[in-house]
Amino acid sequence: MFYKYETHLHTSEVSKCAHNTGAEMARAYKKAGYTGIFVTDHFFNGNCAIPRELGWKQKVNLFMRGYKSAKEEGEKLGLDVFFGWEFTLRPYAADFLTYNLDKEFLLAHPYIDRFPLKEYSELVRKNGGLLIHAHPYREAEYILYPPRPKPHLVDGVEVNNTASNSPDNNNHLAWRLALKHPYLIRISGTDIHTTEFAGLGGVAFRYRIKDSQHFVDALRAGDAYLIIDGKITDREGKPIEEVV
Ligand SMILES: [Zn+2]
Ligand SMILES: [Zn+2]
User: N or C end of the chain, less CB within 10 A?
Assistant: First the structure.
């Protein structure tokens, strides 16, 4: 028995590039047999739909909308919905999934969207957050090349990013980075922007995740299996046979 979780998900309430609402995403993941999802919308320094000129508090309130929409629907369906975000470092456009911090943290730390990576990483980790470098070697027009991952400033790396299975994600290079730095947590994420890809990525556990802290503890304990192209794999990415 596995409990499946999406780790990298965008909603149209908050992410400009997403095509489905949080509620629609929740329904798609329930249908795909997942136990939960982490909503990780583009933060204010990324492709975020929230007007830049608003004040911090107002922006934070609006930022919660995608998560809330998913959470409310999840409560009706029996899908666990957790909060996170995707921080984008300027000008490189490197992306960092951030977990285990909440709205109160955001309200208490205005303008962290302007922080350099080192300061952001220190603040997040000091407050119990978990930082994962998303698709560290993705090639795209909006990303400054060459990529310069900073493994010492993160807790882990997204070794598999589905994102419509584009070869431009260079997942093989992300794997190489993880192998070179074995202390890094490995996760897989769909980077879902449209419901049709629900079920392709994420992580799985042998037990149900209670909250974001439990998720972090489970990852640190090495208990995560990776969901790659819809199959459950071990932490090396090898598909495993389910024991009946
Ligand atoms: Zn996006
Ligand atoms: Zn993303």
Answer: C
pLDDT higher than 70, residue 151: yes
* Number of domains comprising the chain: 1
Q: Which residues of 213-242 are buried (b: 16+ CB within 10 A; e: fewer)?
A: eebbebbeeeebbbbbeeebbebebeeeee
- Which listed ligand is nearest to 48 at the C-alpha? 1
228 vs 19: CA distance, rounded Å: 22
What are the start-end ranges of the E strands in 129-240? 130-134, 156-161, 185-189, 202-205, 225-228, 231-233
Residue 131 lies in a domain: yes
Give the number of whichever ligand sits closest to the CA of residue 14. Answer: 1
Question: pTM of the entire structure?
Answer: 0.96
Residue 25 lies in a domain: yes
Asked whether residue 241 is domain-assigned, the answer is: no
| Residue 244 confidence (pLDDT) | 43
In which domain, by residue range, is 117 found?
A: 3-233
Q: CA dihedral defined by 114, 202, 193, 87, rounded to 10 degrees?
A: 0
- Please report, as a single letter, which amino acid is at residue 166: S
Other Cβ atoms within 10 Å of 180 Cβ, number: 9
Kindly give the distance from the C-alpha atom of residue 97 to the centroid of ligand 1, in angstroms, as a whole number. 12
What is the whole-number distance in angstroms between the Cα of residue 189 and the centre of ligand 2? 9
Point out the ligand nearest to the CA of residue 15. 1
Question: H/E element holding 27?
Answer: helix 22-31
* Mean pLDDT calculated for residue range 41-46: 97
Give me the amino acid identity at 182: P
| Ion ligand 2: residue ranges with CB closer than 5 A | 86, 191
Query: CATH no. for residue 115?
Result: 3.20.20.140
